[in-house]
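Work Package 3 (structural annotation) set out to generate three-dimensional models for the target panel prioritized at the project kickoff. During this period the team completed the workflow that converts sequence records into discrete structure tokens, so that structures can be stored uniformly alongside our sequence database. As a representative example, we reproduce one entry of 351 residues exactly as it appears in the project archive.
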Amino acid sequence: MTRPNLKFGIFLAPFHGLKEDPTRALERDLQLVSYLDDLGYDYAWIGEHHSGGMEIIASPEVFIAQAATQTKHIQFGAGVSSLTFHHPLILADRIMQLDHMTRGRIAFGMGPDALPSDAQMMGTDTLKQRDMVLQAIEVLVPLLRGETVTQKTDWFELDEARLQRQSYSKPSVEMAVASQTSPSGARTAGIHGVGLLSIGATTPGGFNALAANWEIYTRKATEHSQPVDRKAWSLVGPMHIAETKEQAMSNVRFGLNEWMTYFKEVATLPIAPEGEDPAEALVASGLAVIGTPDDAINQIERLETESGGFGTFLHMAHNWADWAETTRSYELFARYVAPEFQNRNDNRRER
């Protein structure tokens, strides 16, 4: 059966346990991205956070600049950049510089900060962040498309602002707006004609909102004469696979509990279901795959059916298992899951 030609990658927040050396953890993140490049993955999205203890990449741009020198093909996403913490002109200029330094291997994810503690430390009113994000996107998109912008808000001002460089990528840098369950992200992405990054696609709320959010995206794009392409839609969900489900369940005992505690006590994403066995609860809720390559295939097919189709599936990167089992999971996915959605074996099966 011919399937859509999906792309695959990771969404690397990252999540590092509080007992391990943070310097070594960052080095391992660089090793992971290089390994995924060798395996043929398409994207590595890198997060931005400033508190909480586990998500320890403060600047996706700095990480990407080094990672790009160690890889050949994989595309990087600054995702998502916390728009309310940066002047839009400075942020756009950094992204444009990366576009040239990576020779077009950069995408730009836009959204609010996910941790209230980040905003609190900087004196940013969390109740105003949504409006601030919309104001920032309104100028970031035209700036990165080479336009001149004049805009004044209560937190930034642009006076005939224009970037010094035109984009290396043509027609412009790839852009996407982050979305959880609310329609805000889909509405904004449609209005501006950029991609949609559904970070909570496998959570119960996010999964149930997939079709509705795409309808909103399509409607707003049509109203504003913007293109509509499902290939520009990325869905994020956690997976860990092994040769057997029993092995996968055993592997994740390494770090799953700490990850669950973090989401319950620190982060704001509704991602940790209740249950006596955390691993079984994640699987039963549909939020995660902890099993075999066949289970991963079933999850992606489930997302295809519910959404109506999308362009990229991103693993929510985690440290549920130790390094050896984590890299083995990504290898098994590249060998046995990705080909099912990329028409790699059609001719071989028809011999």
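The chain has one domain: 7-349.
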